[in-house]
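Submission sheet (multi-component)
Chains listed below:
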Amino acid sequence: MSDETHDAVHRHPAPTSFIRKYIFSLDHKVIGIQYIILALVAVLVGMTMSVLMRMNLSWPGTNWPILGTLFPGGAPDGMMTPEFYLSLVTMHGTIMVFFVLTTAPQGGFGNYFLPIQIGAEDMAFPVLNMLSFWVTLVGFIVILAAIFYSGAESTVGPIGGWTAYAPLSALPNSGPGQGLGMNLWIISIAIFCVGSLLGALNFITTLLNMRTRGMSLMRMPLTCWAWFTTAVLALLSFPVLLGGGILLLLDRVAGTSFFIPGGLYVSGVLAGTSPNFPPHTGGSPILWQHLFWFFGHPEVYIAILPGMGATSHILSTFARKPVFGYRAMVFAIFAIGLLGFFVWGHHMFISGMSPYSAMTFSILTLSIGVPSAVKTFNWLGTLWGAKIRFSTPMLFAIGFVSLFVAGGITGLVLGQTSLDLPMHDTYFVPAHFHLVMGVASIFGMFAALYFWFPKMFGRFMHEGMGKLHFWITFIGVYCIFVPMHTMGMVGMPRRFAQFTEYEFLASLHPLVVFVSISAIVTVLAQFLFYFNVVWSIFKGKKASDNPWEATTLEWITTSPPPHDNFAGILPTVYRGPYEFAVPGAPNDYLMQTEPEPGEHPAEVGGNGHNGHKH
Amino acid sequence: MGRALAVIIWILTLGSVSLFFVKKWWFPTAISSHAPALDQQFLITIIVVGLSFTAAQVGLGYMVWKYRDRGQTERALYSHGSNRLEVVWTIVTAVIFIGLAVMGQSVWASLHFNQPPADAFKIEVVAQQFQWNFHYTGKDGVFGRTDPGLIDDSALNFIGLDETDPNAKDDAVHSVIAIPSGRPVELILRSKDVIHNFWVPQLRFKQDLVPGMAIRVHFTANRPGKYELACAELCGQLHFKMRSFMLVLPEDEHTALMGLPQDQFQTRMTELLAKYPLPTN
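Outcome: structure written.
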């Protein structure tokens, strides 16, 4: 690509109208903020659902008059029905995984900071970027529609869980919420897949083609490596989910049988004997699981990799010390991304899949723990000999490390074929993945927001509120998710609307209540965070261009950056991203744009893009 | 701040680990022949997990405590890492993690790669929303023919048993599974509608029942008693109520039960269900 066409592609004048500036914006920074706002709205919905679920689990049979008023069908007289509970399970998972953990880390922070950190004026394809956000938003609106139009009044969506296992998901007559609600769910996910694909293409192209002079790959901040690998994962995994979703929809509306075997007898009706139940035959329910988890496992890394990148970045900045083992960190990100495609079968050990392939998947799964452990060691190495400044972003980054270890390490249990026999589908599993892909990822995003907020809005978030938010959330999530491991060991199955039916679960009741109270307290603390965000945009302490004394390119421009990021002069990069505590340097940090004494720009190595104007 | 964070990390670590140490909440007593090896593997794994978790958290707390900015003039250590350390910890974790994965295969292999002995007690399991149906061969040891076209829930023919088949004459269908103690059991798992999962915590065993498939699994239970059977795969609205029992009977009691004609079989099952209490742990 020549420099001229390149410029023509990504250059666009600053918009003047409100609509082009803030609504249908082509500016990656505005689009990034739009993604973050979407995630902030979505996480509120998902979080509220989790509180409703906890209330039902701890105090089953209680009348909550407010619930009865809001959901007369789902909670007649204020008492939650099992199908209402299961629709909450489904929608909580779907909204959190897709519209929170896949939007804010990548579409949000990645969009805003990847171009700036590599010294580009914008994404490679600004229009595509705008489209990817708006497509994703349409997906969100459709999933909200599933809440209100799920067919049966008694649910707020389908009841089959976010994994939508066929044939429960493929048969409209398999339960309440499985009619129109399920169709809307599939359509929403399909739309979301398209939005993510557009975004992924943009990220990959931008990173490969638009790095500024001197920004060689190995001089990129680790955040950029994480966003890049995430985009590759999204590019390769979302099409599979999209394809699977289309097949599932066809099974439901066109009478095909990709996932539906013959001879089913559902709700008193034999397949083929009623116009509403076509004569399905020959499909495989396990095929859906393969397609879903081929996407679903990389998705876990799509959620966590950006958090890992942000954590590395923030730990180094506030430790005032270079990242320990930068190269090893890059290789570890790659190893996780690559291995992430070969472990999906560990979700399916007991599905009826071949027990021989289960063995292979098990060994590959525990192998993926190795690069994860390498990252942890390097984070600890970064802190070793440091001079740590405990700002709120640093607290959340340290919290990320702690939670990533706490959640990740139990993968050693779940990844083993034999141990999966007692553990599969018990609370041990939600305990594991909530800590690692849920809470750790969210901590990465909290760290990122507290860290970059001064750059994005020119003002700090309030430190006092931020720290209080951290303490409550950090302690809270441990209290919520650690006891769930022991529930799993006792044998408590997931996705039960109530635990009252089984005697072997009775002894767990105190733990269940403890978890629910912890959850409610933790959720309440998040309102402090929301308040802090809004308050700080208007009233926060003014921030300078480089308030954290950091080294990467986003800190050489103004806060907030101008429309083209660097006011017309793209920076030249002379050194790696984390040059803190360099002996002999005037400050304890050296900007990436700081030349070596006597070095001429023309001598700068690296294979970055040279097409900027001078 | 650094010291407070370190202390909180250590307290949370201590709290988390002690939850596994006090054993107030732990696995129920196992009743299957493969369970001791599995519990042993769990114990080894959870010790490795606990040690790694504790080491990482204590280390994190230590760094946070020791290397806080105390206002000193010296800068932090200028280090980009150590290739030797990278190699060491990569190899060490690879050996431990992959070693665990390999060790974790033995129970799995014993259950899934061996055929059940020819004299195993065979029973067909037909799950449906939200009910378990267990198909007993009766005296002849042969399952009567079944056909989805014959299923009629309203007539209580839940599994579509063909009454005209001579082999079906002595077959019994019941919502409770009764198996012999100390003798291998082979389950033939089917589902009529959606995916279910056969889950008895004391067995340390779980398997999906997938419509369109007949999945054969085997195990040996060796402690007579009555145990709760749950569905562990989300199967719809009343998933949480899809409960039944597994009776593990001394071999002679079980043989006598299997020899009974259908009507007496039902009565005897009711008696046996009343006879055995649920385990207390």
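Remark: Residues 106 and 176 of chain A are 35 Å apart (CA to CA).
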